[in-house]
Design brief:
The complex is a heterodimer of chains A (100) and B (517). Chain A is mainly α and 100 residues long. Chain A has a domain at 5-42: Histone, subunit A (Orthogonal Bundle), CATH 1.10.20. Helices cover 37% and strands 7% of the residues of chain A. Chain B has 517 residues and is an alpha+beta fold. Chain B has three domains: 3-328, no CATH class; 337-449, no CATH class; 458-516, Arc Repressor Mutant, subunit A (Orthogonal Bundle). Chain B contains 16 helices and 16 strands. In chain B, helix 8 (362-375) crosses helix 10 (409-420). The chains are: A mainly alpha (100), B alpha+beta (517). Strand 2 (87-91) of chain A pairs antiparallel with strand 9 (177-181) of chain B, so a sheet runs across the interface.
């Protein structure tokens, strides 16, 4: 099962990555190698093996509904590239020409 | 004002007309924040509305690298409770998944949600549609009940909130930048998805109202639609009556009241039918309801190509619910509105209509039961009458709920007692009610203060009756000549003489005795 250049670009778009044409070719080869490895695993006969939902054999881990201290706002905002009025600042979301 | 009413009436007629030839197919997605929990879904930050931005945050709900989520036990119980209250099957085995997408109000760049293994599946609610709640709607021919299937209820986390700066009216278009507040991020959120079983805007409204009532009864959320703690989205398509294949659907969002939900669906059904009638095609898209302009418009978002790449959340282990545990949650189910309605009708002898209206508001139902308990079950009917008439009118006029009113269940019980014991007439009771609503005084004190005692003493009434008969010989002759309707005139005269304090039943009896005898 080979992955196409178009699929590489689609996955890159979903991950918000800008790739050069060379990178598309290179990453396509790497992804195909990963998929090839999965193809090998697919050939194993696992008819008698229980599906694994999690690597740990543990279920129902929960916490009681009790308040615990969080972060001070100054601390929470300290690593933000920009902050304003106690909030995280993000650049404009919709580009010019778009109608929201 | 009258013009706006006319416009609305025309729109309603148009919907009824469209529904003659077209059938609407509607499914709802209803998100409800678990606002009554102390903490968020996966961390110990407190749950509250509003407040200074980013003051209820921690590494988990800010999506800091390395922070690990731990599910809130109470949120999982609340979801199972919701599923049991809506006749769902509770999964024996379930888990969380990651839903991957980018949006600035979601700090992790994925939302922890559920995918193919939700906690609750395959439920239903029976919804009464009809004049029982008020004037019939045009899309509704008569009273009927309909069963709406519930596909699933799953648990996920809410996002943060954004404020867009620099554009007009806070809109995202034209904004120079946006501010993000993560106080709400990570709050437990249940999503209920219905089957496409809904056929009219009225059915959609009734379903959402009933669901809200159940959630309130379970105490899992404040269900405040204006504050966004309950949010209803709808998928709508239309097809010609008798046709089997489904039409292309549009998703309608931004309805923040039950009226908006109804009006947005009515608008969208008419829009799609008219589009198809003029040989156009419906585009599968998300549309935004504008309650002011009364129309939906396309969101034209570039993010429409959803590819969420769900995968099992590796940071949390799966859930295995033992049947005994599910039964222990079921044992905590409170009496639900339908059962309460049936009980009030059968045990206290209320008409089904009255029981339905009283139990469609939790505070009213609690108020009624308390007042009926104080007044005694034999007076429950009178308590209900005064609540559905005087009290409801007063609350509507004041624009408040019964919990915010200064009238207490004990006051209503006392008032009913005064009428029942014959101390005051039911006409006087209305005056006492009005004064009680205004001053918050107890009815007994008002009656005392105003000297409103009803006179039932036959001797006193006889004396006045004789005087009235003597003063009106002409009317007496006419009455005795066959004009029976004049009895009311005499009653009126006696009541006036006695300042409205005579017991009307006794006055009637005495008058008839004197005039007919």
């Amino acid at each position: 099962m080979a992955i196409s250049e178009e699929q590489v670009r689609h996955v890159a778009m979903l991950a918000r990555l800008t790739l050069t044409d060379e990178q598309v070719v290179h990453l396509g080869e790497e992804l195909n190698s990963v998929l090839g490895h999965i193809d090998t695993i697919q050939q194993l006969d696992l008819a008698d093996v229980e599906p694994t939902a999690h690597v740990l054999d543990v279920v129902n881990v929960m916490r009681p509904d009790e308040v615990r201290p969080g972060l001070e706002r100054e601390v929470a905002l300290r690593n933000a590239p920009a902050a304003e009025a106690g909030a995280f600042v993000i650049p404009r979301i919709v580009g010019g020409g778009d109608e929201a | 004002m009258s013009n706006r009413k006319e416009v609305r009436a025309v729109a309603k007629d148009r919907l009824a007309e469209v529904l003659q030839t077209w059938e609407a197919v509607i499914g709802l997605e209803i998100h409800t924040e678990l606002t009554t929990l102390a903490t968020k879904m996966f961390c110990g930050c407190p749950v509250a509305f509003g407040g200074e931005p980013n003051t209820r945050v921690c590494p988990v709900c800010l999506g800091m690298p390395g922070a690990l989520p731990v599910p809130n036990e109470a949120a999982i119980e609340a979801t199972v409770l919701a599923g049991l209250a809506t006749n769902c099957r509770i999964a024996a085995w379930s888990q969380f998944h990651r839903k991957n997408y980018f949006y600035p109000d979601m700090p992790k760049d994925y939302q922890i949600s559920q995918y193919d293994l939700p906690f609750c599946e395959d439920g239903h609610l029976d919804v009464d549609i009809g004049a029982v709640y008020g004037p019939p709607q045009p899309d509704q021919e008569s009273d009927y009940a309909t069963r709406i299937g519930i596909t699933r209820i799953h648990l996920e986390e809410d996002t943060g909130k954004m404020v867009h700066v620099g554009g007009s009216e806070g809109r995202i278009a034209g904004a120079t930048h946006s501010l993000v507040d993560f106080n709400r991020a990570g709050t437990g959120l249940i999503e209920l998805v219905t089957e496409p079983d809904i056929r009219t805007p009225e059915e959609a409204r009734r379903f959402a109202q009933k669901l809200r009532l159940i959630w309130l009864c379970l105490g899992i959320s404040d269900c405040n639609m204006e504050e966004g703690s309950m949010r209803v989205d709808a998928n709508v398509s239309v097809r010609r009556r008798g046709e089997g294949a489904l039409g292309v659907k549009a998703e309608v969002k931004n309805m923040n009241s039950f009226k908006s939900l109804h009006d947005a669906l009515a608008h969208e059904i008419v829009r799609q039918a008219e589009l198809l009638e003029s040989n156009g095609t419906v585009v599968q898209e998300t549309r935004h309801w504008d309650a002011g302009a009364k129309r939906t418009s396309s969101l034209r978002s570039k993010e429409e190509a959803h590819d969420y790449r769900y995968f099992p959340e590796p940071d949390m282990v799966p859930f295995e619910f033992a049947p005994e545990w599910v039964e222990s949650v079921r044992a905590r189910l409170p009496e639900l509105p339908d059962a309460r309605k049936t009980r009030l009708a059968s045990d206290l002898g209320l008409p089904v209509h009255d029981a339905t209206v009283l139990t469609s508001d939790l505070d009213m139902a609690d108020f009624f039961e308390e007042a009926a308990r104080i007044a005694g079950p034999e007076r429950a009917r009178q308590v209900s009458n005064i609540m559905l008439n005087e009290l409801s009118m007063h609350l509507n006029a004041a624009g408040i709920g019964v919990a915010a009113s200064r009238i207490s269940p004990a006051m209503i019980a006392e008032l009913v007692g005064l009428v029942d014991e014959g101390a005051i007439s039911s006409k006087q009771a209305k005056d006492v009610f009005a004064e009680m609503a205004e001053t918050g005084e107890a009815p007994g004190a008002i009656v005392e203060l105003r000297g409103m005692k009803q006179v039932s003493d036959t001797a006193v009434i006889e004396e006045v009756v004789e005087r009235v008969i003597a003063a009106n010989p002409g009317q007496v002759a006419q009455y005795q000549g066959g004009k029976a309707g004049l009895l009311g005139y005499f009653v009126g005269q006696v009541m006036r003489e006695m300042g409205g304090q005579a017991n009307p039943a006794v006055v009637n009896e005495v008058l008839k005795g004197k005039l007919d005898g």
